[in-house]
Amino acid sequence: MHTRKVRLFVATSLDGYIAGPDHDLSFLHLVEREGEDYGYTVYADETDTVVIGRNTWEKVSSDGASSPFKEKQVYVISSSGNPESGPVVYYSGNLTQLIRALKSSAGKDIQIEGGPQMIGELLNSRLLDSICISTIPILLGSGIPLFREGLHPVKLELQQAGSFPSGLVQATYKVIY
């Protein structure tokens, strides 16, 4: 049986922010090109489950961009549960326990969509298997960092790297524990 991988596909500014002040994501538009998704469609096709932070979910669903999650089981990590069910489940339990249960179940890989709190917990719990970082050529100066302070040191092994005409540089790493 295929062991499900827990994978992060994320965009950051050159100075390491996944969003500007007030969760501003407008810097992502700097690299938008018609017909170019920087490998996201291939990545998303390899997953059937999305674990997403509440703030990220609210931003994505309010933008009307929930279509990348169609036909996927979505777990919204929230400190307060929500009665919704079906393809979207609000989960207020232990993130580590959820991920371990998902990894041991049958299915495609697990897609992580979240901020530094979620990413840090997964790294410190040794549950994140790969990280694909797309670096956008801008310095934001402040905002929401990709990684929070207090992470245990984690070794990464470069799997793939490349650049695009837009200036975006992408690197995929295997997480080594």
From TrEMBL:
Segments forming domain Bacterial bifunctional deaminase-reductase C-terminal: 4-168
Share an example GO biological-process annotation for this protein: riboflavin biosynthetic process
What InterPro entries does UniProt report for this protein, alphabetically?
A: DHFR-like_dom_sf, RibDG_C, Riboflavin_Biosynth_HTPR
Write one Pfam family the protein is assigned to.
RibD_C
Q: Name one GO molecular function term.
A: 5-amino-6-(5-phosphoribosylamino)uracil reductase activity
| PANTHER family recorded | 2,5-DIAMINO-6-RIBOSYLAMINO-4(3H)-PYRIMIDINONE 5'-PHOSPHATE REDUCTASE, DIHYDROFOLATE REDUCTASE FAMILY PROTEIN (AFU_ORTHOLOGUE AFUA_8G06820)
UniProt-recorded name of the protein? Bacterial bifunctional deaminase-reductase C-terminal domain-containing protein
| Species for this entry | bioreactor metagenome
